[in-house]
Design a protein that fits this description.
359 residues; alpha+beta; 3 domains; eleven-stranded antiparallel beta sheet; 26% strand
């Protein structure tokens, strides 16, 4: 293996399952009550949703239904649940990235079923996996390949560059999509998943190899349930890394399929035999995200304090003023319009949103 590359992390980054449940008895999950609350939210214009508790789990109830036809969307720290009394399947669940890296897919699946049982729902047929994303994160100080180094069965491919520097290779669409991309740039520019830095133990030179797979390819490998996924994922990934798409070392041979396999792909193929490590408990990413958010708020407030200081200096005909004085001055101004009851209500609302998984 090339000593410059190193596997930092491997696991399931996204999982979506359809659950076929029926309600044996009506406990806390009442669809009529949910509809009333959703309509009140919609009419009030609250786009952020409403924090509610169902079956001992904190959720954020969305003021609208989902694009796939479910009337209700409930978001918690561990699940994004689309559901409806008359939908088939009745529940469609997305297990988010931060939950899957913190806990195993099997444990999250059992937690959902336990929660469903606590509110009166039981399965009448097994769940169906509809999407899974497998991710392999590598430390790659040097990118010594380009689009021509990939030999793929995918009919479509694309690249994305930022200021002339390649950031993403994409192969395929629909049921099989392979993305190889600069994960650090993606975090900084889009996803804000700063807790990956703690998982990796570094903040630079990390590229992700990610397979996004949907149900048609999953069914070809006899993957219907979560148990099937855990049992047959090795066969599926071997096909993807050995037959569907390979990365090659540039060679003088005119036939790219005869170019030698790149050390990155050689290492990946070897890792397929280590899949028992996928999804193990790793981290609680919430604190890392909240620390990052706290720092951003502080930086933003610091910028406003400079503006306040400038206004104050003009008013008082001063050349400079200490930050400590401006902090006291702003505190005095804020106490003039501070409403304790509104403060408690708004802070409580934001706490509920964080606890519901809205980081």
């Amino acid at each position: 293996m090339d000593s410059t590359l190193k596997l930092l992390l491997q696991g399931i980054d996204t999982l979506q399952c359809a659950y076929y449940l029926h309600q044996e008895h009506n406990r806390e999950l009442n669809f009529v009550d949910l509809l009333q609350q959703r309509e009140e939210l919609r009419q009030s214009g609250q786009r952020g949703g409403k924090a509610i508790s169902i079956g001992g789990v904190n959720f954020l109830l969305s003021p609208h239904g989902t694009g796939s036809g479910y009337p209700f969307l409930l978001t918690s720290e561990n699940f994004k649940i689309e559901c409806g009394e008359f939908n088939k399947p009745s529940f469609f669940v997305t297990f988010p990235s931060h939950a899957l890296w913190r806990e195993s897919a099997s444990l999250l699946h059992q937690r959902f079923l336990s929660w469903a049982s606590s509110v009166g729902f039981v399965p009448h047929q097994p769940e169906r996996v509809s999407r899974v994303d497998f991710a392999f994160d590598y430390s790659l100080p040097v990118i010594d390949f380009d689009e021509d180094c990939f030999v793929s069965r995918a009919h479509k491919d694309s690249q994305y560059r930022d200021q002339g520097k390649i950031q993403t290779f994409t192969f395929g669409q629909g049921d099989i999509v392979l993305r190889i991309y600069d994960k650090v740039a993606e975090i900084e520019q889009q996803s804000d998943k700063v807790w990956f830095f703690e998982l990796w133990g570094q903040k630079e030179n990390v590229w992700r190899i990610e397979w996004q797979l949907r149900k048609n390819i999953l069914r070809q490998f006899q993957i219907l349930t979560l148990k099937d996924l855990l049992k047959n994922r090795g066969d599926l990934l071997r096909y993807l890394f050995e037959e569907h798409t390979t990365l090659r070392l540039r060679d003088s041979d005119g036939n790219r399929s005869r170019w030698p396999i790149h050390p990155l792909w050689t290492d990946l193929q070897a890792r397929i035999g280590e899949l028992d490590q996928l999804g193990i408990n790793r981290i609680d990413g919430k604190n890392a995200v909240l620390e990052e958010r706290m720092m951003r708020y502080a930086i933003s407030m610091y910028g406003y304090l400079k503006a306040v200081a400038a206004v104050y200096c003009v008013q008082k005909d001063l050349e400079d003023v200490p930050i400590e004085y401006i902090l006291r001055h702003v505190a005095i101004l804020m106490h003039g319009f501070h409403e304790p009851i509104e403060w408690r209500s708004e802070v409580g609302k934001r706490i509920s949103e964080i606890e519901s998984g809205v980081w």
